[in-house]
Design brief:
The chain has eight helices and four strands. By secondary structure, it is mainly alpha-helical. The protein has one domain: P-loop containing nucleotide triphosphate hydrolases (Rossmann fold). The strands form two sheets. The chain has a two-stranded parallel sheet with strand order 1-2. The protein has a two-stranded parallel ribbon with strand order 3-4. Helix 1 crosses helix 2. The two termini are 24 Å apart.
Length: 163
């Protein structure tokens, strides 16, 4: 973000839609709203909402955080050049990071975390991770190291796109 990129968090878009529907943005409600959006508007529904937000801000360079499916990736690719970067960590590490983050819709127990993983796998996150252009490990990383790895990957990609 320090380099002038705008960040759109797909989960924020879902939380906003959850509140718009008069629901508390907890784990149960955001999961249901995410599934219902896809049923009502198609598999690209969340990406479409993100595109609307991006267009309203008129940003040239955007980081989209929270891809869950290849349909979402393809939706973004129809609108601009895209690099897909997967940030990977073990289930244990991801659960710890979510507990530290402490959002209202983060899983409070390992059982809830497992259900969240199952829901995201059903949407297609595994295919998106497997199709990533770059994979960065967050298993033992720090926020600064993770950011540096991300900048390196994007810089390599931008050089390739500009050539």
């Amino acid at each position: 973000m320090e380099r002038g990129w705008h960040r759109v968090v797909m989960g924020d878009v879902i939380r906003k839609e959850t509140r718009r529907r008069g629901l508390e943005p907890d784990a149960k409600n955001t999961g249901e709203v995410m599934r219902n959006l896809r049923k009502e508007r198609g598999e690209s529904a969340v990406a479409d909402l993100c595109l609307a937000e991006i267009r309203s801000g008129r940003a040239d360079r955007v980081v989209i955080d929270g891809i869950r499916s290849m349909v979402e990736v393809e939706t973004f690719r129809k609108n601009a050049p895209v690099i897909l970067i997967a940030v990977h960590a073990s289930p244990e590490r991801r659960f710890e990071l979510l507990k530290e983050r402490g959002r209202s819709d983060d899983p409070a127990s390992r059982e809830a975390f497992a259900r969240r993983d199952e829901r995201e796998l059903a949407v297609g996150i595994g295919n998106a991770i497997a199709s990533a252009d770059e994979v960065i490990s967050n298993e033992r990383s720090t926020p600064a190291k993770l950011a540096a790895s991300m900048v390196e990957a994007v810089d390599r990609w931008m050089k390739a796109v500009d050539s």
